[in-house]
Amino acid sequence: MSAAVDGISMPPFWLGLLLIQFVAMPFGVFSVSGFNQPSDIVLPALTLGASVAAVMARFTRSAFFEVAQEDYVCTVRSKGLRQRLITWKHIMRNALIPIITMLGLQFGFLLGGSIVVESVFSWPGLGWLLIESIKTQDQPVIQALVMLFVFEFIVINLLVDLLYAVVNPAIRLR
């Protein structure tokens, strides 16, 4: 959990710079700018994924322990079921609802964080295009990209709502 706290507290641009300085530069395995070969996606993916993984690890742990302390879990334990069955069928299934919610929110973070990571690693992506459009005050491109990001966020939230019904059949779509 201390690694998770470190991952939460470290901003993505700083982690990206540290990965460039201590991984890419000394070993020369990854390029530090642009996308030239498939292995060049490793450092930006680590940069974006580290904070999301840290948040999800802490949140999953707290949701799991919160559900494990519920009364119905004590009842199931008293019936003599195996711990593995209790964990996967009763605890994890009920803990997945808040975890899925947090995962959907983390995708929004990834959309915003990709702008910073593209700047650090000099990737010509949509985040870079947005920053360049803001610098040149290109209003139609700015509006289009903001609408695209909003649409992506809406689709992600729709998928999260649909996943609720898959994880917990008691939640019905009406």
Key attributes of the depicted protein:
single chain, about 170 residues, mainly alpha, MetI-like fold, globular
Overall description:
The chain has 174 residues and is mainly alpha-helical. It has a single domain, classed as MetI-like fold. 79% of the residues lie in helices and 0% in strands. It has helices at residues 2-9, 12-27, 42-68, 71-78, 83-120, 126-136, 139-167. The protein starts with a helix and ends in a 7-residue tail after the last helix.
Write the layout of secondary structure elements.
Elements: H1 2-9, H2 12-27, H3 42-68, H4 71-78, H5 83-120, H6 126-136, H7 139-167
Helix pairs in contact: 1-3, 2-3, 2-5, 3-5, 5-6, 5-7, 6-7
Secondary structure: number of strands: 0
* Rg, nearest Å: 21 Å
Mass-distribution shape = globular
Low-confidence stretches: none
Largest sheet: none
Order of helices and strands: HHHHHHH
Distance between the termini: 39 Å
Average pLDDT figure: 86
Helical proportion?
A: over 70%
Q: Concise description?
A:
The chain has 174 residues and is mainly α.
